[in-house]
Amino acid sequence: MASSGLRRAVLLVVVVALVAGAVAAAADMAGDRAALLALRDALRLPRKSLRGAVPVGTVDNLTALRTLSLRTNTISGGVPADIGGCVQLRSLNLSGNRLAGGLPERFFSLALLEKVDLSGNRLTGGVSPEFSRLASLTTLNLDRNGFSGTLPGNLMLPKLAQYNMLYNGQLGGAVPASLARMPASAFLGTALCGGPLAPCANPSPPSPGDSKGVREEEEDRREMWTHL
Ligand SMILES: *[C@@H]1O[C@H](CO)[C@@H](O)[C@H](O)[C@H]1NC(C)=O
Ligand SMILES: *[C@@H]1O[C@H](CO)[C@@H](O)[C@H](O)[C@H]1NC(C)=O
């Protein structure tokens, strides 16, 4: 069991390093057993000049991983769909890359996630109501991306203490009630209104009684997400 975990970790480092074109660094890591064992718990490859898309199957088997940080690289493509395999993941930092498109459906199955930092990428599309499935989130940073549309009115993240949605210029509409306690600075550079920001002008934000409209909107959005 331990050795197969190790083999998988070695494979992962090699694959990641190949993506990066940094084979020499991988050889060093493969020779360092302690580093590889630590990898089962945390994989941190910040500022390693990782380039290109993360190939499918690279992160799928890291089922014991709690921390994944690939921040400040030039990783492109989308957030890898097989991230859903990292079922123990608590902390994910992919900030400062070139990740584009929407978040894969499986990302929202990572119910233990506490910290998510996707800031400074090229992520687009709506902010999915599926975020509410990540009930353990304390930090969610979606700053400096291209998210658009409105925030789901029923977004519910009870443990959230830090939230940043700033500089997503295409994002408008009302701040959901559950995020109204965030400081206004969390929403700078968006067209959002209400909550800590200036009150919304017409049309007024959907009231709780307006559930049909809200539900339809959510269904549209969910449909869009399943197509991404
Ligand atoms: C990942 O797990 C799958 C299924 O359990 C297995 O077929 C595959 O070889 C594993 N990949 C790696 C890189 O170990
Ligand atoms: C993610 O990495 C960035 C860039 O180094 C850092 O500023 C930020 O604090 C990290 N986010 C979290 C949630 O730790």
UniProtKB/TrEMBL annotation:
InterPro entries, alphabetized: At_inactive_RLKs, Leu-rich_rpt, LRR_dom_sf
GO molecular function, one term: protein serine/threonine kinase activity
Catalysed reaction, written as an equation: L-seryl-[protein] + ATP = O-phospho-L-seryl-[protein] + ADP + H(+); L-threonyl-[protein] + ATP = O-phospho-L-threonyl-[protein] + ADP + H(+)
Keyword annotations: Glycoprotein, Kinase, Leucine-rich repeat, Repeat, Serine/threonine-protein kinase, Signal, Transferase
One Pfam assignment: LRR_8
Transmembrane segments: none
Stretches of the chain forming a coiled coil according to its record: none
Endpoints of the signal sequence: 1-25
Enzyme Commission designation: 2.7.11.1
Region (Disordered): 201-228
Name used for this protein in its record: non-specific serine/threonine protein kinase
